[in-house]
């Protein structure tokens, strides 16, 4: 299922850098490049960005495209691939926009073959320069089924069998969920791969050989330049160009702000499309908007979890009326009211658990001798979460037709971490990663809500969650200054693990069925949440974590 995101990430990123006192790391515009943003990574890039601007050569943080070389922001191959120029009369030898037939020759692994043709005679002009994208990890090269033409987004001309469904492991980071491909055995074609979103971790990827290995609505995308570092199932509304009539089965090369240039999802082009490549969109990608069925420049929420023994816990729901505030509930079709009631009950219980999390954190701050502003701001966040819970219980009660609230939170007495390093690790996971993503989720929910009253409620929650995320980043920066160099290195590892876990979870959520009919009611379903998380990890958590590490 394809998802187009509505929210822009720059305001939240700017606010986090302001909160940490690192505004200078954002660049002149306050939202493009973080300090140290190109310090960590494994991707060598050389060439141009598709607009004629030279790109850097060296290690870059391009997220999940680690290990791939020579791809520009448009998805057009910029390495020194073999190029053949041919002049013909009356016919062409270039790869066409709808077929992938070309002579690839013998090239190295993951290279692409480019054929440039100038035509004369009965033609409307020269065919666009096309690049046939080749499978990675194969020698000699094998076509992937995707091509790019004229600097536009890639499109799939035909399905090909992926010869390397499980690439070799590239994990060299200790203490990760996996170290070798043998550790990834939950599903077929498992491989242990590095995940680089500013900090490096490792996680399992499960590949495929053909479309038959994928769920409905997904196609099997081989590894390769532009395509991505690993073979995997990717969502697509079309199988290949043949499904699109006189249009193309086109694929975006980024799902959100600052994503790496690899194939993400696909849909047929339309005569009404507003873009067919990324550069004209500036800092946002060209992506398919499923709501409007058009390619265009693309521009729930729960609070901090209450963790007990590394598991988030909530109170059970209970029939009661005292935990809901006054809130008007929009009329909704009977068929979706039960689903909306269940959704808002779950969100309300999570917000209720956040009250316990912040209450415990206040005691931790006092035990650690933290400055008073942290204690005061955490107390305010606690009050915010009480109101969030009441608002969400009101929505749940309205849609469900009877009052619902929280039962006893039996684990509320459980103590949390007491030493500074352990508290920092918890705040990294729960606030810097968790609440930052929650703030983006809440903003996405508010953008999609059609009812003005509900939109105001969700916008208020989004504003509060944003401040809570900022508070977490501020605390971690202060705490790192109190730690030794070795302890700071361990907090970097905690960051890497938290980010890797979130990225793996997002990958799983992206393959779950969605409920797009609920999005107009402010519901962020699992495919939409996956898109929000992936965008947030790459475009927000990445630069903030890198700048934080460089500042301490």
Automatic annotation (TrEMBL):
This is Ferritin-like domain-containing protein. InterPro entries: Ferritin-like_SF (IPR009078). It comes from the Bacteria. Residues 34-123 have a biased composition (Low complexity). Residues 34-130 are annotated as: Disordered. It comes from Nannocystis pusilla. The lineage of its organism: Bacteria, Pseudomonadati, Myxococcota, Polyangia, Nannocystales.
């Amino acid at each position: 299922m394809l998802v187009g995101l509505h929210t822009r990430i720059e305001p939240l990123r700017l606010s986090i850098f302001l909160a940490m006192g690192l505004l200078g790391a954002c660049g002149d515009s306050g939202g493009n490049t973080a300090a140290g943003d190109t310090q960590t990574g494994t991707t060598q890039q050389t060439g141009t960005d598709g607009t004629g601007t030279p790109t850097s050569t060296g290690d870059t943080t391009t997220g999940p495209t680690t290990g791939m070389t020579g791809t520009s922001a448009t998805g057009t191959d910029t390495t020194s691939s073999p190029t053949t120029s041919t002049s013909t009369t009356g016919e062409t030898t270039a790869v066409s926009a709808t077929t992938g037939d070309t002579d690839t020759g013998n090239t190295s692994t993951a290279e692409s073959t480019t054929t440039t043709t100038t035509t004369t005679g009965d033609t409307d002009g020269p065919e666009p320069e096309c690049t046939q994208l080749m499978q990675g990890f194969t020698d000699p090269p094998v076509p992937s089924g995707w091509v790019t033409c004229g600097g536009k987004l890639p499109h799939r001309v035909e399905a090909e069998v992926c010869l390397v469904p499980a690439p070799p492991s590239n994990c060299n980071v200790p203490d990760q969920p996996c170290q070798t491909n043998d550790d990834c055995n939950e599903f077929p074609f498992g491989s242990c791969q590095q995940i680089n979103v500013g900090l490096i971790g490792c996680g399992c990827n499960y590949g495929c050989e053909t479309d038959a290995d994928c769920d409905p609505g997904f196609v099997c995308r081989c590894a390769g330049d532009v395509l991505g570092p690993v073979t995997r199932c990717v969502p697509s509304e079309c199988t290949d160009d043949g499904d699109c009539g006189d249009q193309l089965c086109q694929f975006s090369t980024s799902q959100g702000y600052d994503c790496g240039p690899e194939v993400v999802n696909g849909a047929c082009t339309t005569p009404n499309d507003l873009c067919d490549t990324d550069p004209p969109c500036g800092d946002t990608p060209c992506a398919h908007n499923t709501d409007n069925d058009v390619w265009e420049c693309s521009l729930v929420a729960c609070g901090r979890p209450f963790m007990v023994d590394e598991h988030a816990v909530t109170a059970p729901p209970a029939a009661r009326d005292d935990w809901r505030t006054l809130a008007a509930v929009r009329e909704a079709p009977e068929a979706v009211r039960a689903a909306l009631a269940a959704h808002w009950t779950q969100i309300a219980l999570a917000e209720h658990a956040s009250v316990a999390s912040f209450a415990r954190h206040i005691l931790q701050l006092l035990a650690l001798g933290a400055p008073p502003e942290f204690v005061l701001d955490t107390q305010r966040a606690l009050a915010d979460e009480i109101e969030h819970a009441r608002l969400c219980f009101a929505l749940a009660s309205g849609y469900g037709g009877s009052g619902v609230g929280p039962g006893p939170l039996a684990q509320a007495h459980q103590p949390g971490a007491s030493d500074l390093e352990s508290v920092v690790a918890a705040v990294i996971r729960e606030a810097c990663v968790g609440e930052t993503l929650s703030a983006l989720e809440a903003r996405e929910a508010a953008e999609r809500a059609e009812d003005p009253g509900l939109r105001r409620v969700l916008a208020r929650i989004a504003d509060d969650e944003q401040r809570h995320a900022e508070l977490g980043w501020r605390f971690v920066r202060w705490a790192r200054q109190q730690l030794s160099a070795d302890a700071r290195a361990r907090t970097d590892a905690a960051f890497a693990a938290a980010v890797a876990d979130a990225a793996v979870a997002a990958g799983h959520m992206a393959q779950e069925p969605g409920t797009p009919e609920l999005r107009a009611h402010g519901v962020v379903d699992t495919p939409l949440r996956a898109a929000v998380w992936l965008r947030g990890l790459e475009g927000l958590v990445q630069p903030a974590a890198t700048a934080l590490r460089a500042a301490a």
